[in-house]
Design a protein that fits this description.
With 209 residues, this protein is mainly α. It has 10 helices and 3 strands; from the N terminus they run αβααββααααααα. A 3-stranded antiparallel beta sheet has the order 1-3-2. The longest helix is centred in the middle third of the chain and has 24 residues. The chain is elongated, with a radius of gyration of 19 Å. The N and C termini lie far apart (44 Å).
Protein backbone atom coordinates (compact mmCIF):
# COMPACT_ATOMS: atom_id res chain seq x y z
CA UNK A 1 0.00 0.00 0.00
CA UNK A 2 1.35 3.41 -1.02
CA UNK A 3 1.79 5.94 1.77
CA UNK A 4 -0.35 9.07 1.36
CA UNK A 5 1.39 12.20 0.11
CA UNK A 6 2.02 14.67 2.99
CA UNK A 7 -0.42 17.57 2.87
CA UNK A 8 2.27 20.23 2.46
CA UNK A 9 3.87 18.32 -0.42
CA UNK A 10 0.50 17.86 -2.11
CA UNK A 11 -0.25 21.56 -1.72
CA UNK A 12 3.17 22.46 -3.11
CA UNK A 13 3.11 20.14 -6.13
CA UNK A 14 -0.49 21.04 -7.04
CA UNK A 15 0.07 24.80 -6.86
CA UNK A 16 3.40 24.61 -8.62
CA UNK A 17 1.83 22.61 -11.44
CA UNK A 18 -0.88 25.26 -11.79
CA UNK A 19 1.78 27.92 -12.23
CA UNK A 20 4.08 25.99 -14.58
CA UNK A 21 1.27 24.84 -16.87
CA UNK A 22 -0.38 28.24 -17.05
CA UNK A 23 -3.44 27.19 -15.07
CA UNK A 24 -2.54 30.09 -12.81
CA UNK A 25 -0.92 32.67 -15.13
CA UNK A 26 1.41 35.44 -14.09
CA UNK A 27 -0.36 38.19 -12.17
CA UNK A 28 -3.18 35.97 -10.90
CA UNK A 29 -4.09 36.21 -7.22
CA UNK A 30 -4.09 32.85 -5.45
CA UNK A 31 -5.91 32.18 -2.20
CA UNK A 32 -4.53 29.63 0.24
CA UNK A 33 -8.07 28.87 1.40
CA UNK A 34 -9.48 28.44 -2.10
CA UNK A 35 -6.68 26.20 -3.38
CA UNK A 36 -6.76 24.24 -0.15
CA UNK A 37 -10.49 23.63 -0.50
CA UNK A 38 -10.01 22.40 -4.06
CA UNK A 39 -7.55 19.69 -3.02
CA UNK A 40 -8.71 19.06 0.53
CA UNK A 41 -5.73 20.57 2.34
CA UNK A 42 -5.91 22.81 5.43
CA UNK A 43 -4.48 26.32 5.70
CA UNK A 44 -1.26 25.45 7.54
CA UNK A 45 0.24 23.11 4.88
CA UNK A 46 -1.06 25.46 2.17
CA UNK A 47 0.79 28.33 3.83
CA UNK A 48 3.97 26.22 3.98
CA UNK A 49 3.60 25.46 0.27
CA UNK A 50 3.09 29.12 -0.64
CA UNK A 51 6.19 30.12 1.33
CA UNK A 52 8.19 27.47 -0.52
CA UNK A 53 6.93 28.67 -3.90
CA UNK A 54 7.71 32.25 -2.94
CA UNK A 55 11.29 31.21 -2.14
CA UNK A 56 11.51 29.73 -5.64
CA UNK A 57 10.30 32.97 -7.17
CA UNK A 58 7.01 31.56 -8.45
CA UNK A 59 4.79 33.47 -6.00
CA UNK A 60 5.04 37.00 -4.65
CA UNK A 61 3.62 37.34 -1.13
CA UNK A 62 2.45 40.61 0.39
CA UNK A 63 0.31 41.54 3.38
CA UNK A 64 -1.88 43.71 1.17
CA UNK A 65 -2.53 41.52 -1.90
CA UNK A 66 -1.79 38.05 -0.57
CA UNK A 67 -0.19 35.62 -3.02
CA UNK A 68 0.27 36.67 -6.63
CA UNK A 69 1.75 34.43 -9.33
CA UNK A 70 5.04 36.01 -10.32
CA UNK A 71 5.11 36.73 -14.07
CA UNK A 72 8.15 35.62 -16.02
CA UNK A 73 9.64 38.76 -17.51
CA UNK A 74 10.80 38.77 -21.15
CA UNK A 75 14.38 39.28 -19.96
CA UNK A 76 14.23 36.25 -17.65
CA UNK A 77 12.68 34.15 -20.41
CA UNK A 78 15.38 35.20 -22.87
CA UNK A 79 18.08 34.40 -20.31
CA UNK A 80 16.63 30.91 -19.83
CA UNK A 81 16.52 30.29 -23.58
CA UNK A 82 20.08 31.55 -24.07
CA UNK A 83 21.42 29.29 -21.33
CA UNK A 84 19.43 26.31 -22.57
CA UNK A 85 20.79 26.75 -26.09
CA UNK A 86 24.38 27.14 -24.94
CA UNK A 87 24.27 24.01 -22.75
CA UNK A 88 22.58 21.78 -25.29
CA UNK A 89 24.67 22.99 -28.25
CA UNK A 90 27.83 22.20 -26.31
CA UNK A 91 26.51 18.78 -25.35
CA UNK A 92 25.58 17.96 -28.95
CA UNK A 93 29.03 19.04 -30.11
CA UNK A 94 30.64 16.58 -27.71
CA UNK A 95 28.37 13.79 -28.93
CA UNK A 96 29.08 14.54 -32.58
CA UNK A 97 32.83 14.73 -31.99
CA UNK A 98 32.63 11.29 -30.34
CA UNK A 99 31.00 9.78 -33.42
CA UNK A 100 27.32 10.57 -32.93
CA UNK A 101 24.52 9.28 -30.73
CA UNK A 102 24.94 5.75 -29.41
CA UNK A 103 22.19 3.14 -29.37
CA UNK A 104 21.02 4.03 -25.85
CA UNK A 105 20.66 7.70 -26.68
CA UNK A 106 18.88 7.00 -29.95
CA UNK A 107 16.44 4.71 -28.12
CA UNK A 108 15.73 7.40 -25.50
CA UNK A 109 15.17 10.05 -28.16
CA UNK A 110 12.96 7.77 -30.25
CA UNK A 111 10.87 7.01 -27.15
CA UNK A 112 10.37 10.73 -26.54
CA UNK A 113 9.41 11.24 -30.19
CA UNK A 114 6.92 8.39 -30.02
CA UNK A 115 5.26 10.00 -27.00
CA UNK A 116 5.16 13.34 -28.77
CA UNK A 117 3.61 11.89 -31.92
CA UNK A 118 0.81 10.41 -29.83
CA UNK A 119 0.44 13.68 -27.91
CA UNK A 120 0.10 15.71 -31.12
CA UNK A 121 -2.60 13.32 -32.32
CA UNK A 122 -4.58 13.59 -29.09
CA UNK A 123 -3.84 17.24 -28.29
CA UNK A 124 -2.12 16.24 -25.04
CA UNK A 125 -0.03 19.35 -24.35
CA UNK A 126 1.09 18.13 -20.91
CA UNK A 127 2.37 14.85 -22.32
CA UNK A 128 4.09 16.65 -25.19
CA UNK A 129 5.85 19.07 -22.86
CA UNK A 130 7.13 16.29 -20.58
CA UNK A 131 8.49 14.39 -23.59
CA UNK A 132 10.04 17.63 -24.87
CA UNK A 133 12.02 17.97 -21.64
CA UNK A 134 13.03 14.30 -21.78
CA UNK A 135 14.30 14.66 -25.36
CA UNK A 136 16.58 17.61 -24.70
CA UNK A 137 17.72 16.42 -21.25
CA UNK A 138 18.76 13.06 -22.73
CA UNK A 139 21.11 14.82 -25.13
CA UNK A 140 22.68 16.91 -22.39
CA UNK A 141 23.11 13.89 -20.10
CA UNK A 142 24.61 11.77 -22.91
CA UNK A 143 27.40 14.30 -23.40
CA UNK A 144 29.04 13.08 -20.20
CA UNK A 145 29.30 16.61 -18.83
CA UNK A 146 27.80 16.15 -15.37
CA UNK A 147 27.92 19.86 -14.52
CA UNK A 148 26.00 20.70 -17.69
CA UNK A 149 23.41 18.08 -16.80
CA UNK A 150 22.98 19.43 -13.28
CA UNK A 151 22.64 23.01 -14.47
CA UNK A 152 20.22 22.01 -17.23
CA UNK A 153 17.98 20.42 -14.60
CA UNK A 154 17.95 23.63 -12.55
CA UNK A 155 16.37 25.33 -15.58
CA UNK A 156 13.66 22.68 -15.89
CA UNK A 157 10.81 24.53 -14.19
CA UNK A 158 11.40 27.72 -16.14
CA UNK A 159 11.74 25.79 -19.38
CA UNK A 160 8.48 23.93 -18.74
CA UNK A 161 6.71 27.19 -17.98
CA UNK A 162 7.96 28.66 -21.25
CA UNK A 163 6.94 25.58 -23.20
CA UNK A 164 3.40 25.70 -21.85
CA UNK A 165 3.25 29.41 -22.59
CA UNK A 166 4.37 28.84 -26.19
CA UNK A 167 1.87 26.07 -26.84
CA UNK A 168 -0.97 28.12 -25.28
CA UNK A 169 -0.23 31.11 -27.49
CA UNK A 170 0.58 29.06 -30.59
CA UNK A 171 -0.93 25.56 -30.34
CA UNK A 172 -0.10 24.96 -34.01
CA UNK A 173 3.57 24.74 -33.06
CA UNK A 174 3.16 21.28 -31.47
CA UNK A 175 3.54 19.62 -34.86
CA UNK A 176 6.31 22.04 -35.85
CA UNK A 177 8.21 21.26 -32.66
CA UNK A 178 7.87 17.53 -33.30
CA UNK A 179 9.26 17.97 -36.81
CA UNK A 180 12.18 19.93 -35.35
CA UNK A 181 12.96 17.09 -32.95
CA UNK A 182 12.96 14.52 -35.74
CA UNK A 183 15.42 16.67 -37.70
CA UNK A 184 17.56 17.27 -34.62
CA UNK A 185 17.88 13.53 -34.03
CA UNK A 186 18.95 12.94 -37.63
CA UNK A 187 21.45 15.80 -37.45
CA UNK A 188 22.95 14.51 -34.20
CA UNK A 189 24.29 11.55 -36.19
CA UNK A 190 26.29 13.86 -38.47
CA UNK A 191 29.45 15.88 -37.87
CA UNK A 192 27.87 19.32 -37.59
CA UNK A 193 24.76 21.42 -38.03
CA UNK A 194 23.00 20.66 -34.74
CA UNK A 195 23.65 24.07 -33.24
CA UNK A 196 22.09 25.90 -36.22
CA UNK A 197 18.93 23.77 -36.09
CA UNK A 198 18.71 24.08 -32.31
CA UNK A 199 18.87 27.87 -32.56
CA UNK A 200 15.93 27.90 -34.97
CA UNK A 201 14.02 25.43 -32.77
CA UNK A 202 14.42 27.52 -29.62
CA UNK A 203 13.60 30.70 -31.54
CA UNK A 204 10.00 29.46 -31.78
CA UNK A 205 9.62 30.58 -28.16
CA UNK A 206 10.26 34.19 -29.15
CA UNK A 207 6.68 34.59 -30.32
CA UNK A 208 5.42 33.71 -26.85
CA UNK A 209 7.67 36.04 -24.87
Amino acid sequence: MTDPIPAAELAYSHTKNLILTGGAPGGQLLSEAQVGDEIGVSRTPMHEAFLRLAAEGLLTLSSRKGAVVTPMSPREAQNVLDLREAIEAGAARRIQEAGGADADLVAALEAALSTQRAAVGSGDVEGFVEADQAFHAAIVDASGNELAGQFFRTLRDRQQRLRHQLFRVRPDTLADSLADHETLLATLQRDSGYDTLLHAHIARHQGAL
